């Protein structure tokens, strides 16, 4: 839902940013209120249409799952995401920033397909959360 507020949030925004030349911070400043309004409407509809969301009754036998993190890959992911966001803020064109990040991502430790499924997907989710909450 909040991907509407960033140039790198979805393909349409990447095209808009690339062809218009709008900077990352200006784009985010203009569209963040729209994204927040959409999020508020979505939460209100969920609250209204799904009564279980409002329930204050504890779920029986609920435990949080434990995830194994691959620390070198987490460090690499956070460093690359941070570098990409800094490049966006400094006004580096999206294509050039993405090319540099792709080159950096191919350095160092490489995962097999199965390792990527086990480690890469949770780390990608963590990196996205960091990126969206940072902006």
Count of individual domains: 2
Largest sheet: none
Pattern of helices and strands? HHHHHH
Gyration radius, in Å: 18 Å
Mean pLDDT: 78
User: Shape, please?
Assistant: flat
Kindly describe this structure.
The protein has 135 residues and is an all-alpha fold. It has six helices and no strands. The longest helix is centred in the first third of the chain and has 26 residues, at 24-49. The chain starts with 10 loop residues before the first helix and ends with a helix. The model has no long low-confidence stretch (mean pLDDT 78).
Please specify the SSE layout and strand pairing:
Layout: H1 11-20, H2 24-49, H3 51-54, H4 71-90, H5 94-105, H6 113-134
Helix pairs in contact: 4-5, 4-6
Task: Describe what is shown at a glance.
By secondary structure, this protein is mostly helical.
List keywords for this structure.
single chain, 135 residues, mainly alpha, 2 domains
């Amino acid at each position: 839902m909040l991907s509407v507020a960033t140039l790198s949030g979805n393909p349409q925004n990447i095209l808009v940013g690339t062809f218009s030349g709008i900077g990352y911070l200006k784009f985010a400043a203009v569209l963040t209120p729209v994204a927040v309004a959409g999020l508020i409407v979505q939460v209100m509809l969920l609250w209204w249409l799904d009564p279980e969301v409002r329930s204050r009754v504890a779920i029986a036998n609920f435990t949080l799952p434990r995830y194994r993190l691959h620390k070198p890959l987490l460090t690499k992911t956070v460093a690359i995401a941070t570098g990409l966001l800094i490049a966006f803020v400094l006004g580096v064109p999206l294509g050039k920033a993405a090319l540099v990040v792709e080159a950096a991502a191919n350095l160092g430790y490489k995962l097999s397909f199965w390792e990527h499924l086990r480690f890469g997907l949770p780390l990608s989710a963590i990196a996205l959360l960091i990126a969206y909450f940072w902006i």
